[in-house]
Batch of 3 targets.
Target 1
Amino acid sequence: MLVTLLVVVFASLLATLYIQHRKNSRFWADRGVPHSPPHPLLGNFDCFFKQNVGIWMRDLHEKFQAPLIGIWVFRQPVLVVADPEVAKRILVSDSELFRNRYLASGKSDPVGGLNIFTIKDPTWSNIRRRITYIFTGAKLKAMHGLLSSKSKATVDRILQDKANNKTTEIRTLFADYTTDIIGTSLFGMQNDAVGTGDSPLRAVTRDFMKFDWFRGLSFYSIFFWPALVDIFRFSFFPRKSVDFFRKSVNTIIEHRTTNNLENNDLLDALVKMKKDKLDDGQEFSDDLLAAQATVMLQGGFDTTAVGLTFVVYELAHNPKIQEKLYKELIEAKKSKGGADLNFSDLEKLTYLNSVSKEGLRKYPPMGWLDRISSVDYKINDTLTLPANTPVYINAMGMHHDPQFFPEPHKFDPDRFLPENQQNFVPFSFVPFGEGPRMCIGKRFAQMTMRYLLSELVLSVQFRPLPGSPKPSEVNYETKFAFLMPEHPLSVEFIPRN
Ligand code: HEM
Ligand SMILES: *[C@@H]1O[C@H](CO)[C@@H](O)[C@H](O)[C@H]1NC(C)=O
Ligand SMILES: *[C@@H]1O[C@H](CO)[C@@H](O)[C@H](O)[C@H]1NC(C)=O
Ligand SMILES: *[C@@H]1O[C@H](CO)[C@@H](O)[C@H](O)[C@H]1NC(C)=O
C-alpha cells in the first residue's frame, strides 16, 4: 500500500517536472529566437566548471553568428544580445527599465548582498549617487604622486627580482600594485605590498584570488543561479575578509568622525552617508558601509591587475607594438625635458590608450553585462521579452566578431587609433559596461593602468620567457566566471639602460 503510494507520488513528481521542462524548453522557440535545445538541469550552461564563462560567451557567438540568441542558464531563459543597437537601448536609452542585474547575493551574507554591484534599486541608486563623486577628474588628478611612486616601486621590484635571479609572476606583482593603489587612495590605508609582497590588505586580496571549489560554486551560484544562494548560504566575499573590513572600516570611520578628519576618499563618502539617512528615512547600516569598501577592492584590484597582465604579456610577444609604444612615451617625456608624465599627458597619449583598449577588447575581465527587465520589453516588432527575463550583453562575443573588429584574434592597437575610427560601431566595445550601471571605477582603472604601463615600458623591455605559452595558448580559469589566466604568467624583463 505504502509502496504503491510512494510510486504514484514519485511518478507524478517526475511527470510534473517533465511537463515543466517541456514547457520551459519551448520558451525561445515560441518567440522565434535562435537557440539550442537545453539540458534539463544545466540548460545550455555547459561551461559550468569546464570552461571560462567569457570564452564560452565568445564561442556561443561564433557558433550562432546571430545578433540575438536564446539560452537557458540552468533552468532560466536568458536573452544574449550581440547587437550594438539593442545593447544601447538596454544599457542607456531604456536603462530605467533595466536597473538591476539578474545576479544576486542573497540575504544570508549581509555584506555581500549590500554592495552596489549586487544590490537592487532603489537602494542601488541611493548609494551610487553618494559615492560617484569620489571618482571625479579632480580626485583622480590628486592621485598623481601615489600612482607615480607606486609605478616606480613596481619597476624597482622587477629589477630586484632580476638581480636575485627570481622570475617575477606578473599577475601577482600587478595585484600588489593595484591593492596598494586602492588601499591608499580609497581607504587611506598605507600599504606596501609592492615593496614587500605583503600587507594586511594584500592578505585580503590574496584570499579573494583563491578559487577553491566552494568559492567557485558560490560565485557560479551568485552569478548564474541566484535562487540557490540562500539555500546553500553562499557568500560573495570570503568570511575572513568580511571580518577584516567590518572591523577596519568601522574603526577608521569612528576615528575620522570623532577627530573630524578628512581624507577626501571613499571612506569620507561613507562617513557622510552614515550622517545622512537613506531616502526612505532608514539609516545606512555599518554592514552597508563596509560592503561598499569591500566591493571596490574586490571589483577593482584583480580586474585591473589582470588587464595589465594580458597587455604586458601581449607586448612581450609583439615586439613591434612594444617599440612603437616606447617611442611614443620617450618622445612625450623628451618634450617635457625628461620630467615624469602626469595625468593629463597620459590621457592624451593615443597609442598608449589604444594599447590598453586593445588589451581590454581581447580580454575583457567581465565578458558579459548582466541586466534584468522590470517590465515586458519589446525588443523588436516580433519579439517581446517577458518581465523579469535576464539579458546578457555579450561583450566578449562582440569584441571577437570580425564584422566589428577584423581579424579579432590579432592584438592590434592600431584599430583604436583616432584615424582608424571611421568604421567603429558604437556599443560594440564595452569592457566597462555602459549607462548608469557601468563600472564606477572606469577612469580610476584606466589611470592605474596608464601610469604603470608607461613606467614599465620606459624602464624595461618585455620578452617571452623560453618555453612559456604563446598568448593563444594561455588557459583560462574555469572555477571563476571572469576572464583570467589559469596559471601563473611571466615574461623576461630587460632593463632599458
Ligand atoms: C580594468 C579594470 C576594470 C574593468 C574591466 C571593470 C569592468 C566592469 C564591468 C564590465 C562592470 C559592469 C558594468 C555594467 O554592468 O554595465 C563593472 C562594474 C563595477 N566596477 Fe569595474 N572594472 C574595472 C575596475 C574597477 C575598479 C578599479 C573599481 C573600483 C575602484 C571598480 C568597481 C566597480 C563597481 C563598484 C561596479 C558595480 C557598479 C554598479 O553596479 O553600479 N571596477 N566593472
Ligand atoms: C526579432 O528578433 C528575432 C530574433 O533575432 C528575429 O528572428 C526576428 O526576425 C526579429 N523580428 C523583426 C521584425 O525584425
Ligand atoms: C644569478 O645568476 C648569475 C648567472 O647564473 C650568477 O652569476 C649570480 O651570482 C646569480 N645571482 C644571485 C643573487 O644568485
Ligand atoms: C602636466 O604637465 C603638463 C606639461 O606637460 C602641464 O601643462 C600640466 O599643467 C600638468 N598637469 C598637471 C595636472 O599637473
Note: Strands lie at 68-73, 76-81, 369-372, 377-378, 384-385, 390-393, 460-464, 491-495.
Target 2
Amino acid sequence: MNSAPQMKPWIDAIHAYVPGKAKLDARPVVAKLSSNENPFGPSPHAVAAMTAVLGASHLYPDPASTALREALAALHGIEAGRIICGTGSDELIHLVAGAFAGPGDEIVYVRHGFAVYDIAARRVGATPVVADDVDYTCDVDAVLAAVTDRTRVVFLANPNNPTGTIISAAEVRRLHAGLRPDIVFALDAAYAEFAEGEYEDGIALARAHANVVALRTFSKIYGLAAQRIGWAYAQESLVGAMHRIRAPFNVPATGQAGAIAALADTDWVEKTRAHTLQWRNWLAGEITALGNAGLRAIPSAANFVLVEFPEDGPVNAAAANAALLEDGIIARYLAVQAMPRCIRISIGTEAETRAAAASLRAFVAGATG
Ligand SMILES: *Cc1c(COP(=O)(O)O)cnc(C)c1O
C-alpha cells in the first residue's frame, strides 16, 4: 500500500507549462514582450461592454455563449450550432485530446509546436508523437510519416507559436488529405488575423470534412487574454463530443460581452494588424542587420519574431536574454521549450519594439567588443 496518493504516471510525465514572465524583481518593466498580447490592449468598446455587465456578476454566465456564437457565425458566415466556446482555446485543445484520445492512443504534433499540445496529450494518458520540423517549419511529410494505426489527433498551429512559421493553404490541405478520416485534425489558428496572402484558417476545411476542428482565440489580436475566450468550429459530431466534457459555465459573462464588442470593432483589429505587420518587419530587419554576429530572424507570419543565436560564444541566447532583462525588457527565452538558442520577442508598441531592438544591438556590440 502507498503511504500517500499517487499521481498517475502520465500526469507525472508532464512538464508543467511555463508562462512568459510578467514582472522583474529589481527594476521596472520597460516592455513585456513575452506572451504575444495586443500592445494597445482591448478595444475600448470591449472594455465598455465588460464594465456594463459587472453589476450582474452574481448571475452565472450563459452556459452556451449563445450571443457570442451568433456574432461569430455572422462574421464568418458559418453555423452557430457548430461553434463551441472555451475558456481560452487552451481549454478547447484539452477537449479535443480528451474527447478523442486516451491511454494507448497517439497524438501527433511538430517538434517546435505549441507547448500545450504535449500537456493535453499526456493529461489524458495518450502518447505524444513528435514530427521533426524543417528549419522551424512544419514538414507535412514528416507529420504524415509520424501517423500510425494508433494516431487519434494531429495538432497543428498555423502560423505556429513559438516559431512564427506558416505553411501554405495547399500544404495544410495536403496534410489533411493524407490523414485517415478517423483522425481529428485540429488546426489552431490563434494567429490567423496576422497571416497574409492565401491562407487556410481551417474553417472551410472544417465545414467540408467531419474530422477537422478549427481553433481560434480572443487572446491575441483581440486583446482579451485575461478574459479567457476561445472558440472552435467543427461538424456537429465533433462539437457534441467536446461539449460533453467542457466545464458548464466555461466563458465568463464579461468575456462573452467583451468578445462580441471586440468583434464589432473592426477598426481596432485593423489598426493592431497594420501596426504589428509594420513593426514585425522592422524588427526582423533590425535582427537581420545583426547577422554578422550570427543572429537570425525566423520569417514570421504572427505577432512576434523568433530570434536564433549562435550555439556558443559570447553572443548567445542566454546572455542576450539576461541583457534584455537588465534593460527591463521581458522576452521569451525558449530554453524551457528545448530551444536554448532562441528568444521569441512579441511586437509591442513602437517604443517597446524599438527598445527591444536597441537592447539587442547594445548587447551584440558589447559582446563582440
Ligand atoms: C496563445 C495561443 C493559444 C491559446 O490561447 P488562449 O489564451 O488559451 O485562447 C492557442 N494556440 C496557440 C498556438 C497560441 O499561441
Note: The mean pLDDT is 96.
Target 3
Amino acid sequence: MEYTISSLTLYFTVLFYILFDVATAVNRWQGKEVRWSTNCDFPGNNIGNQTIGGDQCGTICQSILAECTHFTFTLSQGGTCWFKSGPVSSVQAIPLDSPGSVCGFLDISWINEIDFSWSHHCTFPGGDFKNQSSTGRLCGSMCMDNPQCTHFVWTNVEGQGGICWMKSGGATRESAILTPGARGAVCGFRHNPNPNASVPIVTTSAPWFNTDTCECVC
Ligand SMILES: *[C@@H]1O[C@H](CO)[C@@H](O)[C@H](O)[C@H]1NC(C)=O
Ligand SMILES: *[C@@H]1O[C@H](CO)[C@@H](O)[C@H](O)[C@H]1NC(C)=O
Ligand SMILES: *[C@@H]1O[C@H](CO)[C@@H](O)[C@H](O)[C@H]1NC(C)=O
C-alpha cells in the first residue's frame, strides 16, 4: 500500500515537472508583430503550406495570405511553413518534438505616440460616427483633431482607397481585435479622450471574423 502511494507520488511529481518544463518551453515567445517560439505546434486549422525557409513564415502569414493568423514551421521536405487561420492565443501552442520546428502567431504590437497608440493588423468593431478618405499617416491626427473621436480604424480596401473611420465611445488595448494577415487594417486609440465623447459603445457578440469584412491592401 505504502509502496503504491509513494509510486503515485513520484509519478505525479515527475509528471508535474514534465508539464512545468513543457509549459515554460512554449512560453519563451520572441518577436513583436509576429510572436514565435521553437519546438512547438498549433495543431489544425491549416489553410496552406509552402516549402520555404522558416524565417519567411511570419512575413507571408502577415502580408500575403488573407486569412492567416498563425503558423507552424517544420523541417519536412527541407523546410515547410504550415499556414493556419482563425483566432489563436499563445496558450494553444503545444510542444512539438521535432528539431528545428517553430510555431508563431500574429499579435497586436502597439506603437505609442504622445497622444495616442496605434498598431497594424487590428480593428475596433462599432462606434463609427464619421468616415473620411485619408492616408494612414493622417488618420491618427484627424482623430486627435475631432473632440468626439476616442479611437479610429484606417482601412485601405481595394477600389476604395484609404479611409479613416473615426469612432467614439472609448476603446482600450484589450478591446482591439487582431485582423488576419493581408487584411491589415490599422487601429489606434486616444490616451486622454474628451469626456464628452463617451457615448455608449455599439458592441457585438458576433465572432471577429464575421464582423471583419474588409479586404485590405495596406
Ligand atoms: C501542401 O500544399 C499543396 C499545394 O500547395 C497541396 O497540394 C498539399 O495537399 C498540401 N499538403 C498538405 C499535407 O496539406
Ligand atoms: C461614410 O460616411 C458617409 C458620409 O460622409 C456616409 O454617407 C456613409 O454611410 C459612411 N459609410 C459607412 C459604411 O458608415
Ligand atoms: C463638454 O461639454 C460641455 C457642455 O456641452 C462643455 O461646456 C465642455 O467644455 C465640454 N468639455 C470639453 C473637454 O470639451
Note: The CA atoms of residues 51 and 79 lie 6 Å apart.
